[in-house]
Design a protein that fits this description.
By secondary structure, the chain is of the alpha/beta class. It contains 11 helices and 8 strands. The chain has a single domain, classed as Aldolase class I (TIM Barrel, Alpha-Beta Barrel), CATH 3.20.20.70. Strand 2, helix 4 and strand 3 form a beta-alpha-beta unit. The relative contact order is 0.11.
């Protein structure tokens, strides 16, 4: 299927500096490994989503281009290298993800926590967002990361439950919802976030019900983007969803109570991650100041009436 005009990306310049920093520190990014269409835009800022725990995943999802194989042991120096690279790039908001490591007793959660703390030590005041696997539903593993206090914990639902056997054959829809719910219950002060791909054959109503489930799990932020086939081995695109439908998803999600929603064809879970959090905080502060002004006027009016 030919890409519609609304999905085509623009050529970006200045991405080589970012790649040089990443290669110098021996680091991987999900931007490259998953062949994200926004890589040019992000690398030219510069920003990137660091992918820790190696290049090989223990699962094989139908939508993903990351290689599936037996991974190597975690590199104990990787957390420090991520922090140094983020500092070299001038990042004030760092997004960290990983391959799924079902071979490790804790799923790699301790390595995540070390990376979060290394970034905090190296870049005081930096925001940190983690995009985590499901850890096979292990509550203890999830808590290890939450106790490192990331600003945002993201776990993507990815698709509607009916499509899980093809899209995420080694995952479980209810288990992923439980990860989000448990994260919010364990650390209410940490924002939670999830994401969906559309265009894999789901219906509008299925997406609506999935958004409801994610919100019911206490999720704060949501991203919805068009699935794009990264390799010939990956699942084919069933449909290119028009921008107007993404707007309907966005409006519906906001009405359900999400703090912020990014819903457009090229939306990805980590694209403009910092902007999403900052925009919500800015809007929240404006609403709070507005309420204070209104409340002050009401109090003044009551006082005058008395």
């Amino acid at each position: 299927m030919r890409l519609p005009e609304w999905i085509r990306t623009k050529t970006s310049t200045g991405i080589h500096t970012t790649k040089h920093i990443l290669r110098t520190h021996g680091l991987l990014t999900v931007c490259e490994e998953a062949r994200c269409p926004n890589i040019g835009m992000c690398f030219s800022k510069p920003t990137a989503t660091f992918m820790i725990l190696g290049a090989w995943c223990t699962r094989k999802c139908g939508f993903c281009s990351v290689e599936s194989s037996t991974p190597k042991p975690p590199d104990p120096h990787e957390p420090e290298r991520v922090a140094l690279a983020a500092k070299s790039m001038g990042l004030r908001y760092v997004v960290i993800t990983s391959v799924t490591r079902d071979d490790l007793p804790d799923g790699g959660s301790s390595h995540f926590a070390l990376t979060v703390r290394s970034v905090r030590d190296c870049i005081p005041g930096a925001g940190v967002e983690v995009l985590v696997p499901d850890f096979r539903g292990d509550a203890a593993a999830l808590k290890v990361i939450l106790y490192a206090i990331p600003d945002v914990l993201n776990h993507n639902i990815e698709t509607v439950p009916r499509l899980y056997p093809a899209v995420r054959p080694q995952a479980d829809y209810r288990r992923s919802l439980h990860v989000l719910s448990l994260a919010k219950q364990t650390a209410p002060h940490v924002f939670t976030k999830s994401g969906l791909m559309v265009g894999l054959g789901e219906t509008f109503d299925e997406v609506a019900h999935t958004i409801e489930d994610i919100r019911a799990a206490g999720c704060d932020f949501l991203t919805i983007g068009q699935y794009l086939r990264p390799t010939r081995r990956s699942l084919p695109v069933v449909e290119y969803i028009p921008p107007a439908v993404f707007e309907r998803y966005r409006d519906m999600a906001l009405q359900m109570g999400f703090k912020a929603v990014a819903s457009f064809p090229l939306a990805r879970s980590s694209t403009n991650a910092e902007e999403m959090v900052l925009k919500w905080r800015e809007d929240y502060q404006k609403r709070r100041e507005s309420v204070i002004v209104i409340d002050t006027k009401k109090s003044s009016s009551r006082h005058m009436n008395v």
